[in-house]
């Protein structure tokens, strides 16, 4: 409290609490109880730290997802056969026999090939011929016709053996490649013992097992045979159209999507539809929004816990310091001065917790980015806003205790 000009002139005293004095009183009160102050700030530290870490990690992860999307999806083009697949009509394959070679001659194409699902209803698939009427494992194992170029465009990881090639395709050999899921369902884990898979009692020698693919994940649950073999044994696709998978160089996808139908069918390019990759920015924004919304809820819960901790501790401090409040009131402090003092203390607690939480959150983002070999991305506005969030949390948490302190009567407080 300071003497006012009215008091110096002999007029009735009018007490006033300056901002500097209020801050000094608040800091002194916190320093006198360091253990309690640290524990009180802990909730705000965790809340603001989670706030900064979540936004930073979300931005960093979104950047990495966007980069992966750009490197993979932005280099993938799909060409689909538009010929109607009506069971009542004779099926036709619009892709020419040399479709792979035609597209691979285009500048910017890394690999390309045609694939489709075999037109078999209730087939039997197993490691031995199935009795008539039995469809062993057909519900789980899918059957695909795929050219060697399609397998290359899928960018597979070969776990055992090798992929079939142009030799097998040219001779329409009865060979197959298994996806990891299909191999597991069929009980095949190696190819050096020359395993055989029977499709409707027709044997196909397993030449390789694929453990993973970067494109066409459906192949992991499938048995793949050369498309020339499929055409000879089962005919063109019926229930689902044939497609061509094209892997391009970065930046060439949209040009290839424009050129591929004409390169495949210069006589009737309208029979084929090329689908270029979508815009990666839209996907990146959707991922950012989804992840941020989910984790900000968790950060908000932490902030609410921190606010409750500050409110509870400040309220306890009001009850413990009733004598101090009564003495201040007796010396001329008004209710608003008492309320301002406790509000200042809670706000300072929130601000300190916000600063500490911001530093911890930035550290968490840096450590995680370093461990994952990411590029740490933190919005500067997040670093500026985070301490203010802590201050606002402390201010709101101190409202009720401050009002309780302002209502304390000096005479009753001095008696206790």
From TrEMBL:
GO terms for cellular component: plasma membrane. Residues 37-234 form the MacB-like periplasmic core domain. The chain crosses the membrane at residues 38-57, 294-319, 348-371, 383-403. The keyword Protease does not apply. GO terms for molecular function: transmembrane transporter activity. It is a multi-pass membrane protein. Residues 297-410 form the ABC3 transporter permease C-terminal domain. It holds the Pfam family FtsX. InterPro entries: ABC3_permease_C, MacB_PCD, Macrolide_Exporter_MacB. It is found in: Cell membrane. Keywords: Cell membrane, Membrane, Transmembrane, Transmembrane helix. Belongs to the ABC-4 integral membrane protein family. This is ABC transporter permease.
């Amino acid at each position: 409290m300071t003497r006012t000009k009215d008091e110096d002139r002999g007029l009735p005293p009018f007490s006033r609490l300056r901002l500097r004095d209020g801050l000094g009183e608040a800091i002194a009160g916190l320093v006198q109880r360091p253990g309690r102050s640290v524990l009180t700030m802990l909730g705000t530290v965790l809340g603001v730290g989670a706030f900064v870490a979540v936004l930073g990690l979300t931005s960093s992860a979104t950047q990495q997802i966007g980069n992966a999307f750009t490197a993979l999806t932005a280099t993938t083009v799909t060409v689909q056969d538009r010929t109607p697949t009506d069971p009542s009509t004779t099926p036709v394959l619009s892709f020419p026999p040399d479709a792979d070679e035609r597209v691979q001659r285009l500048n910017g194409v890394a690999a390309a090939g045609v694939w489709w699902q075999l037109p078999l209803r209730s087939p039997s698939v197993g490691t031995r011929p199935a009795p008539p009427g039995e469809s062993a494992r057909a519900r789980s194992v899918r059957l695909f016709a795929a050219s060697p170029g399609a397998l290359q465009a899928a960018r597979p990881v070969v776990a055992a053996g090798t992929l079939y090639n142009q030799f097998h395709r040219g001779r329409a050999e009865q060979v197959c490649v298994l996806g990891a899921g299909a191999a597991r369902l069929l009980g095949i884990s190696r190819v050096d013992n020359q395993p055989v898979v029977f499709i409707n009692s027709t044997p196909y020698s397993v030449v390789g097992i694929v453990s993973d693919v970067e494109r066409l994940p459906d192949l992991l649950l499938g048995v793949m045979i050369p498309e020339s073999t499929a055409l000879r044994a089962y005919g063109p696709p019926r229930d689902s159209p044939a497609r061509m998978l094209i892997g391009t160089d970065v930046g060439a996808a949209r040009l290839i999507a424009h050129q591929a139908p004409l390169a495949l069918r210069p006589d009737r390019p309208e029979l084929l539809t090329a689908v270029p990759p979508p815009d990666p920015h839209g996907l990146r924004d959707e991922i950012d929004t989804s992840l941020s919304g989910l984790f900000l809820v968790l950060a908000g819960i932490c902030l609410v816990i921190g606010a409750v901790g500050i409110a509870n501790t400040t309220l306890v401090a009001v009850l413990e310091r009733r004598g101090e409040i009564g003495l201040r009131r007796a010396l001329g402090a008004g209710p608003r001065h008492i309320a301002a003092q406790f509000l200042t203390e809670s706000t300072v607690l929130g601000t300190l917790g916000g600063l500490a939480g911001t530093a911890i959150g930035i550290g968490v983002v840096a450590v995680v980015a370093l461990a994952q070999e990411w590029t740490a991305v933190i919005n500067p506005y997040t670093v500026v806003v985070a301490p203010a969030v802590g201050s606002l949390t402390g201010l709101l948490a101190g409202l009720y205790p401050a009002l309780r302190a302002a209502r304390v009567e000096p005479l009753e407080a001095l008696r206790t």
